[in-house]
Specification:
It is a single chain. The chain has helices at residues 8-20, 23-30, 36-51, 64-72, 75-81, 87-100, 104-111, 139-149, 152-163. By secondary structure, the chain is an all-alpha fold. It has one domain (8-163): Leucine-rich Repeat Variant, CATH 1.25.10.10. The longest helix is centred in the N-terminal third of the chain and has 16 residues, at 36-51. The N and C termini lie far apart (41 Å).
Amino acid sequence: MAETESSPEQVYALVTGMIQEDLLYLLALNLYRLAFESRKDTQVIFSYVLRFRPATASPKSDPLALSYVINNRPEVLVELCNGYEHKESATAAGTVLREVLKSDAAAAIILYDDPVEGGPPSKGLSGIQPDVKQSGKGVFWKFFAWIDQGSFEVGADAFTTFRV
């Protein structure tokens, strides 16, 4: 079967459909459960989707899916970080994270993530309070354990992401 080029409208429909169906969160949450080749494919999907800008968007605006994740579904970022909990998903999650962390807003969400018991998994940008002392239970603090106590591959990838 011959491959055909996709139109910008088709790509836009695919990206918005992935957002509407919460597929980015589900992929991040279940990344470690996927087979090796599927994890690699998921990594590529994340990369394309999180960089996609509609033709009508301003070049200075965040890509569509990245903006959605930052403003509406920061749990995607937290789950990508939690990919380091599983050796199988560490490299794929880390690669996606390093791309996402080029956004200051995404980096801030991870830095200031401090879950409240019984509350939402992540409060996102609206919940960032830089002046409030953190509990040390947020995803940022887990990087120290992943770097120090994980396997060499997990630790090395977590350290590379931490440096970003």
